[in-house]
Amino acid sequence: MTNPPCTGALRVPLTAPFAMAMLFTGAATAQEIPEGGLSLDVEVIAKQLDIARTQIEPRLGATVYDFGRQAIETQPQGDNQALNQLLLQAPGVTQYSFGQVHVRGDHANRLNGVQLPEGINVFGQALETRLANSVSLITGALPAQYGLRTAGIVDIQTKTGTLAPGGSITAYGGQQSWIQPSFEFGGTVGQIDYYVTGEFLHNNIGIENPTGSKDAIHDLSNQPRGFAYVAGIIDPNTRLSAILGASRSQFQIPNTPNLTPGLGLTVNGATDFPSAFLNQTQRQINEYAIVTLQKRAGPVDFQVSAFTRYSSAFFNTGDPTGPLLFNGTAPNAYRRSVATGTQADGSWRISPEHTLRSGFYIQGERSTFTNNSYVLPIDDMGMQTTDVPFTIFDSGGKTGWLYSYYLQDEWKLIPTVTLNFGARWDLVDEFTHEQQLSPRVNVVWQPTETTTFTAGYSRYFVPPPFELVAEPSIALFANTTAAPAITQDNIAKSERDHYFDVGASQIILPGLKAGVDAYYKIASNLIDEGQFGAPILLTPFNYHHGLVKGVEFLVSYNVENWSFYGNFAASKALGKGITSAQFNFMPDVILGGDQVSGSDDPHLIFRRPHRRQWAEGDQSGRSRRGRDPEWGGLAELPAGQSQRRSADRYWVCERDGAALRCPQPFRSGLPDPQRLRGRRR
Fold it and tell me: Tag placement on the chain: N or C end, fewer CB within 10 Å?
């Protein structure tokens, strides 16, 4: 999602007595209990259990940036802002043009301490800001309880009926047909604590406008979202809770006018198509549920959760004539992922100096895909043989598993120094079968009450996102305009990192606090994601090795009713040598333009001089990839958007040492001429 058009926006809370009477009836009934009765007990016990839950998973040694309820409400859009817009206030966070946030590489969402499996969510947000009582961004050298997605943890503590009793109805709107009604309602009934919220977002700028005009062409979106929390206090030390959430988003893919097809194709006698009238759309559905049992037993605290998540995306190409002329293929694509699993975390206070923590995570996931692609036939030289398109059907699926276990000890060496050390074991059995034992160690030194130093090392193991990996049958597209120049398609592997982090914070004056944090990551099989044409789905691939480094500064000042904060971050990410999903790239990108024999003819070599394959990102949100201006080029644009121009159709080739003028091979899913995007994980 793009930045909301705030100018002229109107936020109207509905506070008429009649509406409020209807909203608060349930809450008033629950709260009209004599002082000292059950309602007070439920509130006190719930808060005590909330504190105990945070002690199960401490953030010792990590870098934490917190947004409390007051900080969220004082943002210009308050609860109506998208969650990614809230996170952009934190250091080290940037946003790409599809709306995904980049937190030193990647991020994982956790709801009340439970890791939520990632979904197929390319545009927009599956979670709404309104449901959050607090949001914490956790980065740095993470303790052992955090794994699988490790660059940044977005930990959301949800609202409850005890934290947010009562309710409201809100209407918010503005430019670009922006209409966003919402509601929330919470309270307690006996020993039951409940909270529900929902919103509907409609606008004409669902995806970033690819043109410089004020109004985007074909960019309407409808995004309903809902969330519910219910918990029951079984006894003063036990709570059973459930979370339900859903989002269903529909997006039009925005168009760029006045483009001319550059592939020289003919479709049913047509050689041109008005690019402003392309009618591609994408629908995304995300649903999730979590059930958690939390228990305190003397020095032992633990919680056990079961979760499930359904996610799907459907891309509709509309009239295939235009996409075929511009891209050489017009796919209708569907992808679905269903994940189910369990997570348990516990802590044992052995002594005042030692706290032992342990836990496990198990997840099974079924991922399926279906593609029905319009293509045109071509001969061995890449020339079109008929203008009548035909369809190719491709489908597949796979079930994969993740297993994790961790053990760590928080050891207070002396009153001012705390050491947290442990290890985490992860195993992935999906498209690849890999495992790793990852040591973690963090040291926190607080020489004075106003000064804190942290240092840490973490070994990370990051599997490729299973819900985005597929095994297309490349051979089906041979001798068509969707045939890739390279048929090699190695499966993406797990990224393995050495991560170092040091930081310091200082309370300079009462209310005035400053901090600095620096990090350095050495990666093998660095995972990146690219959007390679239609459909608009991200595809993971690996660089052979990578390097990520950066530094962050922040300062905040709170005095009476005033709050000021600011931050600065600089980061650089480098990756070299693409080692998976090679068919998505042109030959000169794979081997730096030196030479590559990736075609079906072993004697045919594509050669382009002076090529350098590289990838680089910076903290300004820009992303660059190794394509050369001679054949297409990139225009570096804000917010990570990269633009690809039409490529010329001929390469310099060799067959058995003899130079030839060869047609440029078509590649699967050539991007729309106005767009090629991706994100660093």
Answer: C
